[in-house]
Amino acid sequence: MKICRQAYEQIDNKSETEIAFFGGSFTAIPQKYMTELLECVQQFIGENGFKGIRISTRPDCIDENTLDILKKLHVTSIELGAQSMSDEVLFHNERGHSADDVRNASALIKEYGFELGLQMMIGLYKSTPELDRYTADEIIKLSPKAVRIYPVVILEGTELSRKFISGEYVPMNFDDAVMLSAEILIKFNQHEINVIKLGLHASETVGAQMIGGFYHPAFRELCEGALFRKKIDEKIKKTGSYTVYVPEKSLSKAVGQKKSNLVYFKNKGINLKIKPSEKLRDFDINVAEEV
């Protein structure tokens, strides 16, 4: 209540803002407790208040009765932790649900008029880049409004950490994970699906307990920088000096963290100037050779 009251006083565009219950499977908690939590924030929703409520939950914890309650209590968006659309990967990671559970829950959520969000993970145990691409393609078929892409982070004391320490689970190379995540980001972008998060949130827990995986506090920026580097690499076939035009809002991404892309091309005998263009959008680029 205190957090909601503070937010209510500080946020101006309330009509575009949702109260979020995240950090667990919201509809898997006892129904009475779930209802009490939702009822507590009703005073902050409606005319002159917030748009509604956003929750995250498991695909196998959605049914008509639950959705009736959520609808009545002004839930507007539901995110499902799909993680993978491969039943084999879900089984080996002991997720406890199937890919069809994701499909069925997604259809029901959209039928009830909620905004659908889906979450997927890159690099799970027993997964492959091909299966991760398959997951992205299957998620696209479900037409969510938004997605979150979480590359795997291995935390100390988990079953995954035991498999990692024993050598049973070998994560892909970090740079490969960055490029795969960037590729999947583009897939969603091309289908006008908003990627609202790419990479795990920074936290003390991650910093203290991580023993492997694909964590970086600016993971999305790494992916977008790698994507621009790849696109420029494909355009420039010989050494020399070039000016590369990129979308205005993407200038720092194209330059790369700590100017890493400029350094990369300089090491290849290519001098780059990267300039903004108001005419370009998303990840489009134009390359002009200097003479």
Strand order of the largest sheet: 1-2-3-4-5-7
Number of helix segments? Answer: 12
Q: What CATH architecture of the largest domain do you see?
A: Alpha-Beta Barrel
Oligomer: single chain
Low-confidence stretches: none
Sequence of secondary-structure elements: HEHEHEHHEHEEHHEHEHEHHEE
Fraction in helix: 40-55%
Mean pLDDT: 93
Number of domains: 2
Overall geometry: globular
Kindly state the number of beta strands.
Answer: 11
CATH topology of the largest domain: the name is TIM Barrel
Structure in a nutshell:
This protein is α/β, with parallel strands linked by helices and 291 residues long.
Description of the molecule:
The chain has 291 residues and is an alpha/beta fold. It folds into 2 domains: 216 residues, TIM Barrel; 54 residues, no CATH class. It is 41% helix and 22% strand. The chain has 12 helices and 11 strands. The strands form 3 sheets. Strands 1-2-3-4-5-7 form a 6-stranded parallel sheet, covered by helices on one side.
